[in-house]
Amino acid sequence: MEQEFFFPPCPSPQLFVARVLLDNKRDFLLDYFIPEELEQVITLGSYVRVPFKHGFGRGIVVEILEKQQSDRLKIITRLENQQPVVPPNLLKLCRWIADYYCCTLISALQAALPQSVRSDIKPKQDLLLTLATDFNPMVFRNEHKRAKKEIEALAYLQKNHPARLSELPQKTGIPRNIWNKLLRKGLAIGLLTEKKNPLPQPIFPNQTQPQHLTDEQSQALQFIETEMLKPKPKPILLFGVTGSGKTELYIHAMERCLTQKKQVLLLVPEIALTPQLWERIKSRFDSSYTLGCWHSRISRAEKAHLWNQILSDKIDILIGTRSAIFAPFRSLGLIIVDEEHESSFKQEENPRYHGRDVAVMRGRLEGALVILGSATPSLESYYNSLNAKYNLVELKKRVEARRLPQVTVIDQRRRKKNSSEKETKNAFLNTEELISSELKEAIEKRLEKKEQIILYINHRGYSSSLQCSSCGYVLPCPNCSISLSYHKIPAILNCHLCNYSSSVPIQCPICKDRNFKFLGSGTEKVEEYLSQLFPSARILRMDSDTMRKKGALEQALRAFSQRNFDILVGTQMVAKGLDFPYVSLVGIVSIDTLLHLPDFRASEKSFQQLLQVSGRSGRGSIEGEVYVQTRTPYHPAIQFARHHDYLGFVDQELEFRKTLSYPPFYRAIMIRFIGHPEEKVKYVADALTKEIKEKVENSLTLVGTPSPAPLSKVKGNYHYQLFLRCLKVMEVSQKLREIILDREEKWGIIVRVDIDPQDLLK
Question: pTM of the prediction?
Fold first, then answer.
C-alpha cells in the first residue's frame, strides 16, 4: 500500500510549489506545496491527491514553481502514480487542443487520460502455475492411480510450465477445478501475475506474407524514408487508389522507424479495421517487438495496463481508433492515419477534436513523421498538399496490375412499378424497388461462379419509417424530430438518435386505420429479400445491431474471409478498408439519402463512400464490378465515382467551395444551442449571436444567423445552430471562449462550440 503523507498547513521550510489542475468540470487551478519526500518524483504530468474544501480531490500537476514559504498553501498528500501519467509532450498537445477547439484544459486532459488510469483501476491478475519443487511424478502415479485427470494435468504442467491458469482449461480440456485441486494439495505452485490479454485469432490467413513492392511503392518508400530522417518532417498525404498497396507501404515505413529505436502509432477510423491490420502487422514483426491494440471495446483494466506499458516504453507499435492519438509515447517517430478522410475521426463530445488534425499537430510538436493515407483524401488534406503544407505521394495503380472495378449506374427512375395489390401488403418485397433486375442478374452470375458479393446500404433495421396507408401519418419519435425506424427482429419501432423504442401499433393513432406501409429500406429488409430471392445463398448481415456482442465482429469477418458466406449485407462497416480477395461484386442498394443531406460536405461524403465501397471489389485475382442504384444518376458525385475520377471531382468541388467561402478556403465553426423550452433556446441563441457579431465579426470572419438545426429536437431538447466561417481559428476560438465558457450555467442552456464540424445535422 502506498504511503500517504499528512502535514500541517504551515510548513516551516521553503518547499517547491506544484500548480495542480483539479480533475473537475472546469479549469480549476490551485497551488500546493510538494513535500520533501516527493520532491524528486513529482514532475509535470504527475497525478496527485490534494486537500480540497472539506475533503480530498485529485488533479494533474501542470506547472512546477520555485520554492517559497506561505501560510496559505496546503500540501500534496499523495502521489497517485509512480510515474507521470501525462508526459510533458502530451500536456503540451492538450494545451493546444484547449486553445484550438475552444474547450477547457481539463476536458482535453480527461479525453487524453483514460478513466481507468484516473480511477487507479488495477490490471486483472492471473496465476502462473508451475510444479512444486518436491513433486515426484512416479510416486504420485503409484499412489493416485484413479486420479486420471490430475495425472494428465501434472504431465502437461511438467512439459509446459509455467502456464497461465486462465488459459489451461481451454488449451488442455481439463476443467478448472482439477487445476485448483493441484494447488490445494501443494502439487503445483501459483505465482500472481498480470492477466494477459488474449491475442486475436487469425482472420485473414492469406494476407500475412510480405509482398514485393512495385516501382511506384519503392519510389514512395524512398521518399518516406528521406522525410523520416529530417528533424522536422513535413506530413505526407499518401494518395493511393483502392488496392494500390498502402498498407504494405505502412509496414515498410514502420520497419524503418523501428530501426531508429522509435515508436509507431497507427490510427484507424473504425474498430472493424483493427483485426485485419493487427493480424497483418503482427505477422511481419518478430517477438522482439511488442504490439498493442487500443479501442473502445477493450476493458478499463486492459486500458490501464496498456497505458502503463506505453509509459514504460514496452509497446513499439500501437494500433487504435481515434483516442489512441493520446497514447503516452516518449519517443514517437511515426504516426499513420489510415483512411484519413473518414469523419469518424472527429469526436462528437467535448472536446470536439479531429483525430487526424491532432495527429498532425502531435507530429509537429514531437518531430514525428505523419502519413495520411486514403484513396479519397479529404478536400482539406488535398488542398494542403496543393499549398505545400503536406507532401503529396501518389500510388496510381493497383498492385499486380489489377484493374479497377467497372462501375454500372442503374437509373431507378425508369423502373416499372408493380401495380398489383401485393404492393400494399408487401411493399418492401417488390423486386424492382429494392434490387434492380440488372443487380439481381449480376448476383446470380457471381453465385454460380462461387464468388462473393457485398451489398451496401447505409441504414440498419428493416425500414426507416412506418406510415398509415389511409391518412399518411408517419409515427414519430416523441423525443426527437425524426420518424421511428422499424426493426422486424424483434418487432419494434426504434429511434436511432435517443434509442426510444415501442411496440408496433395495431391501428393508426390519428384515423384508426389498421393498414401501414413500411417506407425506406434497411439491412434487415435487404437480408430478408435476398434470402427469398436466393434461398441457397449463405447471407451474413453486418451492422451495429448484429455486431454488439464482444467478439461478434471478429467472428463475422473470419467467417466471411473463410468463405462460409456468399453475400455480405452491411452498413458503413463494410465500406472501409476491408480486403476480401474473393469479392467480385459490390452492389450499392441506395446512395440518394446521403447525396441530398443539407450539408455542404454531402457531395464529398457521397463520392468518398461510393469509391470506398467500390474498392472492396476485385482486390484479388478475380476482376470486379460495381452496381450503383440511384434516382439521381447524373449527379456529379456519382458520375465522377463511376469513372474513378478523384481529381475531376476535386477540381469541381473546390471551385464550388471557393465561391461560397466554405472549407478549405475558410474554416467552419458551428455553435449549437441546446435545451428547453424552445423559446428560451431561441432567445439565448439570438442574444449570443448579437454579442458574437459585435466582438468577432470582421472582414476575416463571416457570422450567419441562428436557426433551428435540421434535427431540431433530439432527446427532448431543442437545437438551434449558428454557422461561422473564418480565416484565423485561434483568434476566433479565444474570443468565443471568453464569451461562452463561463456563462453556460447562468443561461441554463448548453452551448457547444464545434471547430471544423464534420456533420452539420448533429
Answer: 0.86
